[in-house]
Write a structure and sequence with these properties.
CATH superfamily: Alpha/Beta hydrolase fold, catalytic domain
Helix content: 25-40%
Strand order of the largest sheet: 1-2-4-3-5-6-7-8-9
Number of helices: 12
Shape: globular
Number of domains: 1
CATH architecture: 3-Layer(aba) Sandwich
Largest sheet: 9 strands, mixed
Order of helices and strands: EEEHEHEHEHHHHHHEHEHHE
CATH class: Alpha Beta
Structural class: alpha/beta
Radius of gyration: 17 Å
Strand content: 15-25%
Number of strands: 9
Distance between the termini: 47 Å
CATH topology: Rossmann fold
Length: about 300
């Protein structure tokens, strides 16, 4: 049976649109309404809003839910300059302002988690709750950085099916979850004019010197005031479970949980389990198998 990235949106109202976020034309997927508290999903490097198509419907029942293409990504503007974490934070704040959000819950995967943690540390008054999902920004592993850069640049330089498929499969523990529809969507994004340069601009965080100056420190994590859930997976390709636990130990009162059988995209690989864990945390309900991690 053909697996469509839009199948999980059947039976729910959603929209695609663009907002001017501080001069950056920013594409979003949206479900829910403004009477509910706002929630923003943030994808990883080289990613796009479709990372969360399997989560919008469930979350829209309780939240004004947005998944955005961050600056330099997806169908949002791609300014021709290297993008460091401060650029992503500035863009996210611009999006929140444009959407009329004084505060929002943030849920970020990989680069999105890095951006969300930095914003939460530096702008505590803007963040209601925080989820760090296989989040980046805590370490610099040369092998992982080289792999991400190689796969991403290859896919953007030659957006053939094989290269795009390899980049998507890298995200998954179960490679069969790299659905053709998802590969085709990313292929269309990576085939845009100027995408090779845009990818190079977003890959600067895989260079050791630049990455080091952008990393979150123990003091940065300690500055996070929002209730936080650190969610890791059994098969994350960027870091093992101990790194997730270490991040949680540095954030005051953070909860930590592990999803089994998933790679770097647990929200997509096992959406039902992710949605249950995620919604319980965001709603202030008990999270199964999640526990505080003492610093």
């Amino acid at each position: 049976m053909h697996q469509s990235i839009w199948a999980d949106l059947r039976g729910t109202s959603f929209s695609q649109g663009w907002l001017d976020a501080g001069g950056v034309r920013t594409r979003y997927l949206h479900a829910g309404d403004g009477s509910k508290p706002p929630l923003i999903f943030l994808h990883g490097v080289g990613g796009h809003a479709e990372a969360y198509v399997r989560n919008l419907k469930a979350h829209a029942e309780h939240f004004d839910t947005w998944s955005i293409d961050m600056i330099g990504h997806g169908w949002s503007d791609k300014p021709d300059r290297p993008l460091e974490i401060a650029d992503y934070v500035r863009h996210l704040l611009g999006f929140m302002d444009a959407a009329g959000m004084q505060r929002a819950s943030l849920s970020g995967e990989s680069l999105g988690g890095w951006v969300a943690s930095r914003l939460a540390a530096d702008h505590a008054q803007r963040v209601t709750r925080l989820v760090l999902n296989t989040a980046g920004g805590s370490q610099a592993d040369p092998q992982v950085m080289a792999r991400i850069k190689s796969l991403s640049m290859q896919a953007a330089t030659d957006p053939s099916w094989a290269f795009i498929k390899a980049r998507v499969e890298w995200l998954m523990a179960d490679k069969s979850k790299a659905h053709d529809d998802l590969i085709a969507t990313r292929q269309a994004i990576y085939s845009q004019p100027g995408m090779q340069q845009a990818m190079a601009n977003s890959m600067v965080l895989q260079d050791m010197e630049i990455r080091q100056r952008n990393l979150m420190t123990a003091r940065d994590y300690a500055a996070i005031q929002a209730p936080t859930l650190v969610l890791w997976t059994s098969h994350d390709p960027t870091a093992d479970v101990s790194e997730g636990r270490r991040i949680a130990s540095m954030i005051p009162g953070a909860l930590f949980t592990v999803m089994q059988g998933c790679g770097h995209w647990p929200q997509f690989e096992d959406a039902p389990v992710f949605n249950e864990i995620h919604l319980n945390f965001l709603r202030g309900l008990p999270v199964a198998q999640a526990a505080p991690v003492a610093g």
